[in-house]
Amino acid sequence: METNALTFPNLEKAINDFISDFINTYKGLLIRDDKKASGDLLRSIKPIEINFESSKYTGSISLAYYWKYIEYGTGPQHIPDKRQQYWPPRDKILKWIKVKPVIPRPNNGIMPTEKQLTFLISRKIHDDGIKPGKQFTEALNLTWAKNKNKISDAISIDLQSNIDLIKI
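Structure (tokenized):
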């Protein structure tokens, strides 16, 4: 065996298991915290690949672009001159209203239309922001705590296997 042809099959499996466990944990936390209105985010969470480059293993997943708003929230966006330019996309808010479903309350006996409700929710998000959810971070911490020994053991086994193959 060439000294630069090291293999780490146990580590690759441990990383694959870590990614699968993370995805399941993250989905569970999103469901627990009722962050699943349309289910688009849940369906978007998929493993991509494991890469070995420059002596580093990395694993990747794909997510819907808006996961970061759920994770980190948003602050208020007080821009007085062009307010509506910086509002959340109304088409997405309307879809969320229909899927959730959001049940409006009458104001002075008048029930708001979907368009009015979309405007009110968009304005509220713009003015007050969205609280961070932190499900991604929680899932990562839980998954790491559960898998760190498995990953460490996999590295030890693979290193010993590689050492055993080196002939002096």
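Helices lie at 9-32, 40-44, 67-72, 90-99, 114-128, 135-165. The first helix runs from residue 9 to 32.
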